[in-house]
Design brief:
Radius of gyration: 31 Å
Shape: elongated
Length: about 475
């Protein structure tokens, strides 16, 4: 394939958002990212993205997905036809056809998040095999409202595409619709877009008119029906985005279930595309698995758990918790109501229990932080136990400081470790202690707080 042109210039006003429509996400990736990824699999010689609304922002996103992409800026003249005019002018060198752009040129909208490479490859194959000058990807929809209709002659040849606003009652009754995905021969495309005008209800340069131009020039215009209508549905508003997201997520969950993952309730389980789940994992209701999360065999996740770029090892349990950019070891037990901020490393058979928060904490084998504690910028050795209400006071107002707690340490309830501080192996601390200085191995340490009592005390308002 000579080139692929992705149209990403539109404002997407029906999204009612300050974020460009193509940068809204589905399954953990933006709409634009998903379309670029599908097109990349076809290995086009050149990949171009046409931008206009919030051009810098959309262009930066496109380059982050493919640093070799060609960014083409559409001017203020509206319409998909104008977008392709601008693209062909730049790709062909100021409008002059050259040897670098010949053969098939794919044109795809950027708001079709489920458009897959297999559908595109089938479209291109059909175009080449038929000898068409242009081929449009179509779909049969029960409710075609809002889509351009495919108008054919009695022999089934494509005559034209009529936009919703320009269609009469007979044309509106057609259920075969334009998906805004096309393949043109490069020379046909150059000639067909050159003479486009804006003589229509919306005052725009329609790319669909290029098909009529191609037909008038004597080239055959064909159509290829997408086998999966869901793959070619577009997103114009947040209702459509939610509909496609749910349909896609259902397919993702079913795929994992067919590969040996137990998902009790796919309706409330959301799994992004880059998540990796091993066989015999159990995912309970209300879970969100995001980013590059990896879950190993026999782990149990949920209910009501969010994992973001997390790694969960064999047999671990994570219940009613949020775990981000953290590694949970084999047979570890997390939750309920545990908040794991980025940078945690918990080894096998560890525990972070109810209402525990951790950040950059390294917890060695068998150690437990059962409840009501904050452990940040700290290392705890093996088989230690941290009493409830314990805090590592790691921030002095300027720097984050480190706390080192050894192995086989028994921390009493309501302790504060004022970092930087180091506590040796085998230490026992008393309840309510404030640990400010280094504690030697095998010591018992406590802070004495004098208790004062006044008999027969009355508050001032009762005196």
């Amino acid at each position: 394939m000579s080139a692929a042109i992705i149209l990403a210039a539109g404002e997407g006003t029906r999204m009612c958002s300050q974020t460009p429509k193509v940068l809204h996400a589905l399954g953990g990736k933006t709409l634009l990212n998903r379309v670029i990824s599908s097109v990349q699999q076809l290995n086009p010689d050149r990949l171009a993205v046409v931008v206009h609304h919030q051009a810098e922002r959309v262009a930066a996103a496109a380059r982050s997905y493919d640093d070799a992409v060609t960014i083409i800026r559409q001017d203020d003249i509206p319409g998909t036809g104008r977008a392709v005019q601008c693209a062909m002018k730049q790709l062909c060198g100021d409008g002059q056809q050259n040897d670098e752009l010949s053969g098939a040129v794919l044109i795809a909208a950027s708001d079709m998040p489920l458009l897959d490479a297999q559908t595109l490859q089938s479209l291109i194959h059909a175009h080449i095999e038929s000898g068409n000058g242009a081929t449009v990807l179509t779909a049969m929809l029960d409710n075609p409202y809002g889509y351009g209709r495919i108008i054919r002659d009695q022999q089934g040849n494509v005559l034209r595409i009529v936009e919703q606003k320009d269609a009469n009652s007979t044309e509106l009754a057609v259920h075969e619709v334009n998906t805004s995905v096309y393949v043109f021969d490069a020379d046909v495309l150059s000639a067909s877009v050159e003479g486009l005008d804006s003589d229509n209800a919306q005052g725009e340069f329609y790319l669909t008119d290029a098909l009529e131009e191609a037909r008038r020039s004597g080239r055959h215009v064909g159509a290829f029906a997408a086998p999966d209508a869901l793959a070619v549905e577009g997103v114009n508003d947040r209702i459509q985005l939610a509909h496609l997201a749910k349909a896609h997520n259902r397919r993702v969950c079913e795929s994992w279930m067919l590969n040996g993952v137990t998902i009790l309730d796919p309706e409330t389980t959301w799994i992004e595309d880059d998540v990796d789940i091993a066989c015999d994992v159990t995912v309970l209701p209300g879970c969100f698995l995001q980013g590059h999360t990896v879950i190993a065999e026999r782990a149990v996740v949920g209910p009501y758990t969010t994992l973001i770029d997390a790694r969960i090892d064999e047999g671990a349990t994570v219940e009613r918790s949020r775990v981000q950019e953290s590694h949970i070891g084999a047979e570890a037990n997390i939750g309920p109501w545990t908040y794991m901020r980025p940078g945690n490393e918990l080894k096998e058979q560890t525990k972070a229990g109810a209402f525990v928060e951790m950040k950059k904490a390294h917890i060695d084998k068998g150690s437990k932080v059962p409840h009501l504690s904050y452990i940040g910028d700290a290392h705890i050795g093996e088989h230690s136990n941290v009493g409830g209400g314990t805090i590592t006071a790691n921030y002095d107002g300027v720097h984050k400081n480190h706390t080192e707690i050894g192995s086989n340490v028994h921390v009493g309830a309501d302790n504060v470790f004022v970092a930087p501080v180091e506590v040796g192996d085998g230490v026992t601390t008393g309840a309510g202690s404030v640990i400010r200085h280094q504690v030697a191995d095998n010591s018992m340490v406590y802070s004495e707080n004098t208790q004062h009592e006044k008999k027969h005390w009355k508050p001032s308002w009762e005196r």
